[in-house]
Amino acid sequence: MPSPHPTKAQAHTRLVEMKGIEKRFPGVHALKNVHFDLRPGEVHALMGENGAGKSTLMKILSGVYSKDGGTVLVQGLEANPQGPREAQDLGVGIIHQELSLMNDLTAAQNIFIGREPRLSFGRLNEKALNAQAEAIFFSMNLALDPKESVGNMTIAKQQMVEIAKALSYRSKILIMDEPTAALNDKEIAELFVIIRRLKEEGVGIIYISHKMDELKQIADRVTIMRDGEYVGTVEAADTPISKIIAMMVGRELESEEVQIPDLSKAEMALEVKDLNRGKEIRDVSFSIKKGEILGFAGLMGAGRTEVARAIFGADPLESGTITVHGKACSIASPSDAVANGIGYLSEDRKHFGLATGMDVRANVVMASLAKFTDQLGRLDEDQMQEITKDYIRQLDIRTPSDTQEVRLLSGGNQQKVVIAKWLLRDCDILIFDEPTRGIDVGAKSEIYKLLNSLAEQGRAIIVISSELPEVMRLSHRIAVMCEGRLTGILPGGSKTTQEDIMHLATMREAAMQPVGEAP
Amino acid sequence: MTAAHATKRSSIFSHLIDTGAHQKMLAFASLILLLVGFSIASPNFMQVSNMLAILQATSVNGVLAIAATLVIITGGIDLSVGTLMTFCAVIAGVILTKAGLPLPLGLIGAIGAGALCGLISGTLVAKAKIPPFIATLGMMLVLKGLSLVISGTRPIYFNDTPGFDQIARGSLIGEIFPAFPVPNGVLILFIIAGSAAYILSRTVLGRYTFALGSNEEAVRLSGVNTQSWKMGIYALAGGICGVAGILIASRLNSAQPALGLGYELEAIAAVVIGGTSLAGGRGTIMGTLIGALIMAVLTNGLRVLSVAQEWQTVVTGVIIILAVYADMVRKSKTG
Predict the structure, then answer these.
(1) How many domains does chain B have?
(2) Range of the structural domain that residue A91 is part of
């Protein structure tokens, strides 16, 4: 029975059907015969390492890229959206991974950009704009001011504005690209409430995330991609996480228990006492020995990054003392910190850690040029090349050569370049802020091994991480912060549970107890 | 009725002073300080005639600075505003003096030429993706050359168009309030400023002006045709330069084809002193007006105090650097 248009019933069995999708970029076969489908009222997770092709596939569905082959059916009809506007008209909404908001505009202005309620002659109806935004916030159970400038909001609130924007299109199909990356547990719970309500209304949600524990909570089905290829689709409820990871990386990953070394005879590397700055850092004291890995756990905004930046001299302190290798230091700037052997590896490598347009060699020697300079100020390129090649071998940086531009390396290898930079600068106290953010599951365990071996060589390592499994896997001791205070330091290893950490991470001021320092 | 009227006016007013309020308060305070300082230093300064002279001197630079503000808020820059002004004046001269056509056609021609040139700059920036600095630098030279070519390098006088010089020099307000003969040029500046402020705060075009400067990619991904809107903003700025062309031609009663170069930097200076961010996304017309006034007050006050012209230029440069430095200090304090 050949019919040019499917019946209504058929159209509603699948919101989206993508079959045999092909996409090529110059030099890259980005998508090879990929399948994907979405039912009404389901959350369909799309998993895969960075570069697996998830985002490319979703950009085809949302009209950012056009496909080179295959068919896309949206609500039963062949669709080939050209540009975001056409995708929106088809009912496809997307929340981008990189927040795409205009910081100088208000929340309401952001939500309705491109669809402002208008009066005659192109004049704006600001009242209707704010009222409509208010209604959306109300339906999301959010206490946000539509007139607040987005640039003044926290990342979490900005994320909520993004979600409100996508919802305001009354999309039947909602793509969420890592929506929880910047949210704390409470906000994630609120987001999940919103997602469940959308499911009841028959909205289909495509959910991209790297956080495995979220799958079990929210996803109905999981499709796994690897290297631009479709690997398989499984039911989330009855598939173990380990199997999903294995499908993503193509092999089983061994999970390791942290080995805690005996540090009773080790020298003290860094001691900080009574650090204070406003509400962000309040009476923070801790110490770390050579060869130790000290983890910092806590919710977003607990003050961990602030403490790290203060120790590194990037932000000023109001009071407190910092002792490095038994000597009291006054650290007023990052160059003071580096001179004392403290290196800081920012969570945002692209902005603060690397000159991504320059090559590996230039980045590795960046902080240590004095070592390669003769009296006339000329640089010794041969020596720089030799040292860089040493580090490439030693840290197993996968790059075709030391003259490869850093932006072309994967996240894990970029991180190794930053590590090489600080090692060359003789930093023996290294502070890692979210060392595996944006790094693939497979490459994560390599970074973990590298951190362990750096500690074995006698360096003191501070690791700030928002992923509890990561903190527990790495740390010899775990410092937990809440609202700018250090609420406790727990022993590493199996003695400490996630619940113990969460208890300290949510210990508000009212429930404060004296902090006990572990040996 | 009065209540509703008042709230509406107050909200427009509050919008004018809200955005980038600190820098503008600073600029406003500096303006007051300058006025007070010069009044104390010289009894000739605070005279109605001198104040009117300052306003008259602000009018052309003020209008150009408003045009520059629009483009700068989108995250761009327009170096061609000065020579475009001259080009528009020459076009008016060709239409009125050489072709002998009626006055309204000359005005429409000048503003239309400005809008068209702005549209060309906008197309180069939005469609051809040429960086605004380069595209408008090119336009600046093209227009300077064309003005000389079209005019035959000689000034075009408007002696045959009676009333043309009254456009800027006459005073409608003076006919009503003889004590305050505010020149029409100043009136036109305030009308342009009011319209531009209204467009920026109340219309879709204004919304996209800020949005483009804030995060162009985000606007594009929201399904907005960013290219057309950007071209529209450049065209509007060009049209405003056309108005400036009419003002300066009227004041000189002639189109001077060699004039124009250097005006763009004065305009950008006024914008910057007024607190508009060169990074885009932020800025106000009120700030730009205050910026233009500060520059005119400085020039006038220093002249009243008989400071040499060379030193006036030095002081203006220092003021620009101080204004931006004050803004940087404020930003680093608020984080």
Answers:
(1) 1
(2) 28-249
Query: What are the tens digits of pLDDT across the range A349-358?
Result: 766 678 878 8
Q: Tens of pLDDT along A119-147?
A: 888 899 999 999 999 999 888 778 889 99
Which pLDDT value is given to residue B12? Answer: 45
Residues in A closer than 8 angstroms to B282, CB to CB, are: 104
The CATH number that applies at residue A271 is 3.40.50.300
If asked whether residues A93 and A242 sit together in one domain, one would say: yes
Whether residue A413 is contained in a domain is answered as yes
3-class SS of residue A94: strand
Q: Which CATH number goes with the domain that contains B243?
A: 1.10.3470
CA distance B155 to B249: 10
B284 confidence band (pLDDT: 50, 70, 90): very high
Shared-domain flag, residues A169 and A99: yes
What is the percent of chain A where pLDDT is above 90? 35
Q: What is the ipTM of this complex?
A: 0.74
Show the tokens assigned to B313: 């230029």
Burial of A103 (0-12, 13-18, 19+ CB in 10 A): middle
Q: Do A114 and B219 touch (CB under 8 A)?
A: yes
What's residue B191's pLDDT? Answer: 97
Distance CA A413, CA A399 (A): 8
Q: Compare CB distances from B214 to A83, A105, A116 and report the shortest one's residue.
A: A105
Domain of B199 in residue numbering reads as 20-334
Residue A466's nearest CA partner among A186, A159, A156, A183 is A183
Both A53 and A121 in one domain: the answer is yes
**Which residues, numbered 126 to 145 in chain A, qualify as contacts with chain B under a Cβ-Cβ cut-off of 8 Å?**
126
Distance of residue A113 Cα from the nearest chain B Cα, in angstroms: 7
Final residue belonging to a domain, choices A386, A402, A426: A426
Residues of chain A with Cβ-Cβ distance to B217 below 8 Å are 100
Total count of domains within chain A: 3
Per-residue pLDDT, A157: 83
Contacts of A260 (CB under 8 A, 6+ apart): A476, A491, A492, A493
Distance, CA of B75 to chain centre: 17
Q: Nearest-CA distance from A55 to chain B in Å?
A: 15
pLDDT of residue A410: 81
Query: Is residue B242 within 8 Å of residue B112, measured between CB atoms?
Result: yes
Q: Is residue B3 part of a domain?
A: no
